[in-house]
Amino acid sequence: MRSISAEIGEQSFRTWFQPIVPVELKGNVLTIQVPSAYFYDWLEEHYVDELRRALYQELGSEGRLEYSVVVDQGNEQTPPRALHLPPPRKQAAPDPRDAPQTMPTAPPTGNPLAGSARAGSARYVSSGAVRTTPRGNNFGNSAGNADTLAPPRNPFDTARPVDGNLVPSQLNGSYTFDNYIEGDCNRLARSAGLAVANKPGTTSFNPLMVYGGVGLGKTHLVQAIGNHIKATAPERFVLYVSAEKFTNQFIDSVQRAQVQDFANFYLQVDALILDDVQFLANKGKTQEMFFHIFNHLHQSGKQIVMTSDRPPKDLQGLEDRLLNRFKWGLTADVQSPDFETRVAIIRNKMEQDGIDIPPDHVVDYLANSVHTNVRELEGVIASLVAQSSLSRRDIDLEMVKQALRHIIEEVEAEVNLDFIQKTVAAYFGIPVELLKDKTRKKEVVTARQVAMYFAKHHTAHTLKTIGFHFGGRDHTTVMHSVQTVSDLVDSDKKFRDQVDELRKKFAKK
After folding, report:
1. pTM of this prediction?
2. Could you tell me which residue ranges the AAA+ ATPase domain spans (predicted)?
3. Which of the listed residues 44, 177, 206, 288 has the most CB atoms within 10 Å of its CB?
């Protein structure tokens, strides 16, 4: 081991040789235990020449090496299971003097993250020397070693070696559990995320896959996990990276002949957070690299967290062996926030921004008008906060309506509902305000029920939103009104004719 350490450098030695456990030496056959099949493959592909030279020095020309590969980590009751494998290639130890010489390669330049505004917790990654020449080809002997060694490279800053380089976790410090609003739409995902953050790598939620549509808070949640781990265990190396950046880094490492540096870097991570994993679709070599990194981290008890825009079963273009591993842990979805959650988000956001929270009816109006995703809702709130600060006015209903007209397209649905109310009120000869009033007069109740019926069938509003625009009524009232009108249409010809006449007006609209 000492001879190998001197030859390949401290960093690579710690990553690939310290986990090796010598099992037995029988005659001229040395058996070593490696923690995973990935280790076995990597050693045979990249370090076989170093192993052969070490065998020659210690056991002579007849030395042989066999592997004991751990395939099951076991538990307190069951010991680990290992598979014994011979080396896949001939390993008669050669005289190291027969090894060809290598030529040094120039270090790379250029920083792909130059100017990045991302900040967050970081750690120093210790380093050693690794070869810049691709392994498995030609390697120099120990005499020429000093000329063929170069510091390992950091894929987030290829212009600088890992040694002494502060490697940011790429986390946004503003994403925390404290400002992640919990609701029925995300309760499972948040609870699992908090469990993972408190005990990374030790729960059954490994990997944790969070999926959902655009703008629903997936990135906020997984970065909150990372920030929590950094806050409670600052010695751990937490890394957030998008699948797109991971892919670009891997391609860059291939072009620079630094795939080993790339792998070594990611194998040091204690908690890996990969965002938008669907981006790996149809990228075979990148998937293969991530597959091996995933295996090593998982078998080493490291935490893996991923996000996707769909559940694993619906991901296309990903290898089955990768999809199978995604299902090892927990898959939790994040859905569109319900009304109560949207109200809580609005209040929390305004409180964070130091803005006086508007009256309930204003908050309710905003929550009912923006129901697609959290990102869009926060965009409207940011606009309102800016308008309130610049105009030195409190946020009122009129300001909210103005902001909605300029930012979201939901206004069209609101105009349609407003048109329905005015048209129905005019048809039945009553003021439109009575449709929103508490009165129970028969002619008003009938008109209100008909208006709700058309609002249900001619707008994209939810029942809760429709009820809100009819004087704040409950969604069950809307359901009852729609059913009542449907029953009368089937049983009362005169009433059916009235509804058909109104329907023609909305069809023209």
Report:
1. 0.55
2. 204-340
3. 206
